[in-house]
Amino acid sequence: MQLSVSEFAEARGVSRQRALALINSGQVKAKRIGHSWAIDQLEVNQRPAISRPLSPRMARLLIAAMSSEPAELDSQERYFLGRYVERLRSDPSPLGLLHSWLRSRQIRVVDVAANPADIADVSSDRRAIASGISDARAGLSAAREFEGYVAASALDGFLRDNLLIESDAPNVHLHVVEQLPAAPIPVGFVIADLIDWNRPREDGRARELLEAVQWPR
After folding, report:
1. Residue 120, C-beta contacts closer than 8 angstroms, at least 6 positions apart
2. What is the rounded distance in angstroms from the CA atom of residue 86 to the CA atom of residue 54?
3. Model pTM?
4. Can you say whether the dihedral through the CA atoms of 132, 139, 171, 161 is positive or negative?
5. 115 within 8 A of 70, measured Cβ to Cβ
6. Which of 71, 73, 156, 166 could staple 78 via S-S, CB 3.0–4.6 A?
7. DSSP code per residue over the chain
8. Which residues of the chain have pLDDT under 70?
């Protein structure tokens, strides 16, 4: 079911202006139909942002820390990263913080559809790296879906060659980034992607992976 901006705002309990701001910032997915926006009803239940996103650089550094990967930091970055880690470890709801902070890890998200029989080919395309529900560390069965990262420069070719199209029932969830991470993707990306689904199964697995993180000292 598609909602207008006013209907979405009423369902979410925010003003129409706030709803438009969420759409324009990419926090709420919507389709432009003529001069109006159409919003899927599922967006009503998406996890709200509770903090501003980190800078893209700091988001990558936090992901590296979550993934126990070494990173070169200057003194200021080390100080702020330490504060973010300390807040995460002490917050009773760290998933909400990570969802808000790590939105800047990507340029945007593209949801498209593939023929279910072609999902294996999509996932084996070297221009994309599996993450989220498609990463083995998530421990989730997602054989009929694919989630992964693709570089912005390769996106058009990836969509064209894999016959990926817009659909009301997408089964391919792509995180578009400037530079593709190395494979296998750092586990910090997997945790962030699972959190974004805002579903009990994915949240549960994200918590387990987050609890297993060996934070730098």
Report:
1. none
2. 15
3. 0.82
4. positive
5. no
6. 73
7. -EE-HHHHHHHHTS-HHHHHHHHHTTSS--EEETTEEEEEGGGGGSPPP-SPPPPHHHHHHHHHHHTT------HHHHHHHHHHHHHHHH-S-HHHHHHHHGGGGSSEEEEEB--GGGHHHHHH-TTEEE-GGGSGGG----TT-EEEEEEHHHHHHHHHHTT-B--SS--EEEEEESSPPPSSPPHHHHHHHHHHH--HHHHHHHHHHHHT-----
8. 1, 25, 42, 45
pLDDT, tens only, 142-179: 779 999 999 999 999 999 999 999 887 889 999 999 99
Q: Which two tokens stand for residue 97?
A: 């913080």
